[in-house]
Amino acid sequence: MDPTRTIFIFLSVLLYGSTTGFSRVFSSESCRFPAIFNFGASNSDTGGFAAAFIQPKPPNGDTFFGMPSGRVCDGRLIVDFTAESLGLPFLSSYLNSLATNFSHGANFATVSSTIRSPTADVIPQGQASPFYLSLQYSQFAQFKNRSQIIRRQGEIYASLMPREETFAKALYTFDIGQNDLTQSLFLNMSIVQVIAAIPDIVNHFSDNIKNLYSLGARSFWVYNTRPIGCFPQILTSFPSAKKDSVGCAKPYNQLAQRFNAELKNALARLRIEFPLATIVYADLYSAIYSLYTHPTKNGFERPLVACCGYGGNYNYGRDATCGGTISVNGKNIMVGSCKDTSVRVSWDGVHFTEAANKFAFDLVSSGDFSNPPIPLKLACRPR
To answer: Which residues belong to the signal peptide in this entry (predicted)?
Structure first.
């Protein structure tokens, strides 16, 4: 063979191997999100409800913060672990006006928020937070515009607001929908009636994703809803519900699964509509349900019993909320926490402990519980 041709082939193979190797390295490189913008309800509220209305009472916050931190939890939430994993500070609530730094993102979630407007027939006004998802979107749109006006003032203002390019590179996370189901149930709607409302709920969610995309958002990380049939709140309120093999209320978990299936299909359609976006469906339901099927294996105990509560088989009572005061045999006592929160799943009968949040985050962020199967740190790669 001609020596020149041999050298050419050798160099071609070497070059091809180098470039493909480089592509593999590049494709696995973390996205380095400069900010997180979160939308949701109490499971991801880091102080919105506390700033607007009332701060959760102790022992909320005791495990990590040593005091109430605006979170309905003994410590950190999944959104906090998200920020930590990306090397970012915890998110400040958009509603918090005191000593707030928004350069790394903002949190629009508030306790009791729903996807649909609380003025809708299914959730009458006064039964949910006024900060439903479309209003959270409106707050974000205002924030995006006004933050740049403030930033242009320079000096300290510039350091407290995100750069303009941050919005296109940021991660947009969503943890909302649970209240659309549970609040309807507590307004005496049947499961059949709530199921009938799910397509409209999910359509409202999709509309907000589209609106955010129109403002430049490209990386979306969407949590499905949790196994509500395992909540002490549901088990106490609907004691006659048929139980599954681990003791969860089967019809109510099936309701959550129905919502999740609709949400998953909607996100699949959005991926087709927006091929330049990364839209990930994160299966929080399955990750958390594994705490009920294999609690001991995963280092937990008594998963169906609330840690901070009082009364009944599940240590939960609607009038005995965590941190509140109740009268027992003529004595006023504070509703306190269990001794070891690190081995408990349910915090107050509705929300989860820091330990459970960390467990669920580690599973879901790996990509093993998401569709498409993308780890959180690579959620800027369209699939």
So the answer is: 1-21
> 3-state DSSP call for residue 107?
strand
What's the CA gap between 247 and 293, in Å, rounded? 10
CB atoms within 10 A of CB 3: 7
Q: Is the pTM of this model over 0.85?
A: yes
Q: Is 74 a catalytic residue?
A: no
E strand map for the chain = 36-40, 105-107, 171-175, 219-223, 278-282, 325-328, 331-334, 370-371
Quick check: is 42 catalytic? Answer: yes
With CA atoms as reference, report the closest residue to 353 among 345, 343, 362. 345
164-195 pLDDT, tens digit each = 999 999 999 999 999 999 999 999 999 999 99
> What does the alpha-carbon distance between residue 149 and residue 166 come to, in Å, rounded to a whole number?
15
Catalytic residue, from 80, 180, 204, 351: name it: 351
H, E, C per residue of 257-284: HHHHHHHHHHHHHHHHHCCCCEEEEECH
Reduced to 3 states (helix: H, G, I; strand: E, B; else coil), residue 382 is: coil
CATH of domain 34-297+353-378: 3.40.50
